[in-house]
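Lab notebook, bench 4. Still working through the backlog of constructs that have no structural model yet. Next entry is a single chain of 320 residues. Request: give me the structure tokens for it.
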Amino acid sequence: MALFGLTSVAINSGLPARAVPAAAEKGSTPQLVIIDTDIGDDIDDAFALALALKSPELKVFGVTTTFGDTTMRARIVDRYLKAVGRRDIPVFAGPATKTDNVMTQAEYAKGDAKTKFSDGVEFILKTAREHPGQVTLIGIGPLFTVEAAIKRDATTFKKLKRVVIMGGSVYNGYGLDAQGKPKPAEPEWNILNDPAGLTALLSSGVPVFVMPLDSTQVPLKDKEREALFAHGSALARQLKALYQEWIAGTPNHSPTPTLFDPVAVTYTFRPEFCPMKPMHLDVDAKGMTIPGSGKPNSEVCLQSNERGFLELLQERIAGN
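Model written out:
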């Protein structure tokens, strides 16, 4: 999630859209991925998870939760996965943290308080240990769980293939100014809440791929959103239910979601939609991600193919 309750305007690189295959090439092996999410606040996490579930290029090995009441977030994921017939994907809770942020979709998780969730940090490390060099960790929330994994066992964490995150603001902040130009860089929600997490990740020795505000402010407008919800599948019904809770729980904001997090998921199997640039990023105590002159410590996407991304999202989620 990039920022609770804020809708932004996308930056479109103008890159041409290309045909999107409905399935992975025959005989190809899906990538092993873990998704670390703060689902339950903004709605883009739910769309990111939906896209991952509907993309045959990915094998979701498990989902971990991060930030605030991570057990409640795990309950949301657990109900979501069960409702769409994916009981095969295990759910884990990361370390709980203090926050006064409103969990807009908490109602969705109620009624299943008995389920216990194992340690998300240990799951990340165990998976990296058992599948060295094969696992992509997709971080779409504040990096508390990722940071805890590095602190617990940095050597094992380095066995991950890569970490792909939605986070940061390199040159552009949220939305546009009064003149219709991108606002200057500002603290982005995920990094604002745990700047130390990104600092630890950038120095972990694992390749880091960053999708900042510069490339992830993609609005899901009324027409496209209603077309997805009208599909009638179990997945569409869960997205609609969570969307309605998000709207009810966050008054006085636009009904148009901004799909920050699904861009990070998309990059893992459609990297051409978000070309990368090697950069050195510094992180200050306020959560600013500042481009520096040192040796590159990350690959950063500064512009994305909004049109191609939205076509892919619609095809995957509304597909059979």
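Notes after review: Residues 31-318 form a domain with the Inosine-uridine Nucleoside N-ribohydrolase; Chain A fold (CATH 3.90.245.10). Residues 4-26 have pLDDT under 50 and may be disordered. Flag for follow-up if needed.
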